TrEMBL record:
<keyword id="KW-0739">Sodium transport</keyword>
<dbReference type="InterPro" id="IPR038377">
    <property type="entry name" value="Na/Glc_symporter_sf"/>
</dbReference>
<feature type="transmembrane region" description="Helical">
    <location>
        <begin position="256"/>
        <end position="277"/>
    </location>
</feature>
<feature type="transmembrane region" description="Helical">
    <location>
        <begin position="152"/>
        <end position="170"/>
    </location>
</feature>
<feature type="transmembrane region" description="Helical">
    <location>
        <begin position="182"/>
        <end position="202"/>
    </location>
</feature>
<keyword id="KW-0812">Transmembrane</keyword>
<comment type="similarity">
    <text>Belongs to the sodium:solute symporter (SSF) (TC 2.A.21) family.</text>
</comment>
<feature type="transmembrane region" description="Helical">
    <location>
        <begin position="115"/>
        <end position="132"/>
    </location>
</feature>
<feature type="transmembrane region" description="Helical">
    <location>
        <begin position="345"/>
        <end position="363"/>
    </location>
</feature>
<keyword id="KW-0769">Symport</keyword>
<feature type="transmembrane region" description="Helical">
    <location>
        <begin position="214"/>
        <end position="235"/>
    </location>
</feature>
<dbReference type="Pfam" id="PF00474">
    <property type="entry name" value="SSF"/>
</dbReference>
<keyword id="KW-0813">Transport</keyword>
<feature type="transmembrane region" description="Helical">
    <location>
        <begin position="369"/>
        <end position="390"/>
    </location>
</feature>
<dbReference type="InterPro" id="IPR050277">
    <property type="entry name" value="Sodium:Solute_Symporter"/>
</dbReference>
<feature type="transmembrane region" description="Helical">
    <location>
        <begin position="297"/>
        <end position="324"/>
    </location>
</feature>
<feature type="transmembrane region" description="Helical">
    <location>
        <begin position="72"/>
        <end position="95"/>
    </location>
</feature>
């Protein structure tokens, strides 16, 4: 970076951090810090909740991945990644059913009541891994606009961004997270529009929107993976699911549906950045937005960095608030060491600080941000039957464990490269991922219903013997 570029980028980062801290509200009680209520106990408004869900799920790594896939496969790649946002309405509807049919106040409450305490603890461990990954995978994207991995600017920007986000998260918890999400959503939409204003005139619109082929080896396999993961992926992300319990059921459902549809559109639109790179022979080099920004000049690169900072900030503050709730509220209740009374704000603050430090360690080691999505989504495929078919059972711990641990095992085998090649569907880059998710969904579903089937058969045999 030259002096002008450095002044612009570092200056915005400093202004962003100060403005977010000044504007974010301070939580005066635990109900506000952990549940997002205002000082009088009123829940989050519908449109604030919608904006929060919309922007907090548009991670910095997500828009980067969408653009990279657009560069690799055209609009098919963009559609594939954008399809993950359709899981938001799916999650909202399932949570709506859970709340209205079971009266559960959280997913942990629901799992404990249907599948036992150990099932809820296993689920809690899965979401903690997910939250841990969200820290480094978002700060690393921001650092990439200030330098390359290994350079001091890269790490300094990522850590400074972490400090700013942590500061206003400590100030207000979930309440400040939702409040700043609204601001970040407007900033994100404005600058994405500015980016499109530069990209669309530089291309033939029809070519931009039609580039790509719906073939398994041209990105369509990833689209099918996303559609399969719609029913499991959202449930291991408390950044999303925590917001399913902060307002009335119908208000929540409307917010989830609208936010999911808006997210799908926004992510697909941003994937056109990658399609632009593909059409114009721009080498993405693992970061299509940055590559396109550099090719279009300083203004475009700055716009890209603003998009990344706002999307990363909205996810990171939500991650900190979810970590605080998970470790300070949910886990102690599962361990039967806490009652319904919420812990002090100080406990949640300590959790945030610890994970702000530990959560960035993988960034220094170097990792693949796309794998943070696809592999984690595969490992939790066993959650799909649990949340889709819970109505078939009132109490069945084995149904949860057979489904959940089978899915986790398949995900680990996939990551280790131990799945037989015969499982692959097609010959594209995601052929094995598609095969494991397709066959895995069927296997996990069979595992979920197996205890119920055995119980029914056992009951019939007892009746037959009595007759």
């Amino acid at each position: 970076m030259n002096f002008t570029e450095a002044s612009l980028f570092w200056g915005f980062l400093l202004v962003y951090g100060v403005v977010m801290y000044v504007l974010s509200p301070k939580s005066k009680n635990a109900n506000s810090f952990y549940k997002g209520a205002d000082d009088h106990g009123n829940p989050v408004g519908q449109w604030s909740l919608t904006a929060s869900i919309f922007i907090s799920w548009i991670f910095a790594k997500s828009v980067t991945n969408a653009a990279n896939l657009g560069a690799a496969y055209g609009v098919v790649g963009g559609l594939a990644y954008a399809s993950y946002w359709l899981s938001i309405p799916v999650a909202g509807y399932v949570i709506y059913l859970i709340r209205t049919q079971t009266g559960a106040r959280s997913l942990q409450d629901f799992l404990t009541s249907r599948f036992g305490r150990f099932a809820a603890l296993a689920f809690a461990a899965a979401i903690l891994i997910r939250l841990y990954n969200e820290v480094w995978s978002n700060t690393a994207v921001v650092g990439g606009y200030f330098g390359l991995p290994g350079e001091w600017e890269y790490y300094a920007a990522a850590m400074l961004f972490t400090v700013f986000t942590l500061a206003y998260s400590l100030k207000g918890g979930l309440r400040s997270s939702i409040f700043t999400d609204v601001i970040q959503a407007f900033v994100f939409v404005f600058f994405v529009g500015a980016v499109l204003f530069l990209i669309i005139p530089a291309n033939d619109t029809s070519a931009l929107l039609t580039n790509g082929e719906f073939r398994l080896n041209a990105g369509f396999d990833l689209l099918l993976v996303a559609l399969l993961q719609l029913f499991s992926y959202p449930f291991h992300d408390p950044v999303l699911t925590d917001r399913g319990f902060v307002n009335k059921e119908k208000t929540m459902l409307k917010s989830f549906v609208v936010a999911g549809l808006l997210g799908f559109v926004a992510v697909f639109i941003f994937s056109l950045v990658g399609v632009h790179a593909r059409l114009n022979g721009i080498e993405a080099m693992g970061n299509a937005p940055a590559a396109v920004g550099q090719s279009l000049g300083l203004a475009a690169l700055f716009f890209m960095s603003v998009v990344m900072m706002t999307s990363a900030g909205s996810t990171l503050d939500s991650t900190f608030s979810s970590l605080a709730k998970s470790l300070a509220v949910d886990l102690p209740r599962l361990a039967r060491r806490a009652k319904d009374k919420l812990p002090s704000v100080r406990v949640g603050a300590v959790v945030m600080i610890v994970f702000a430090l530990l959560g960035n360690l993988p960034m220094f080691a170097g990792t693949d941000i796309l794998k943070a999505t696809t592999i984690s989504g595969t490992m939790v495929m066993g959650l799909a039957p649990v949340f889709l078919f819970y109505g078939f059972t009132q109490w069945s711990p084995w149904s949860f464990h057979l489904s959940f641990w089978t899915g986790l095992g398949l995900g680990i085998l996939l990551a280790a490269g131990l799945i037989p090649s015969s499982w692959a569907i097609g010959d594209g880059a995601y052929a094995m991922l598609l095969g494991v998710n397709a066959y895995g969904f069927l296997i996990c579903t069979a595992c979920f219903f197996l205890p119920l089937l055995l119980r029914r058969l056992a009951g019939k045999s007892v009746v037959a013997e009595g007759a």
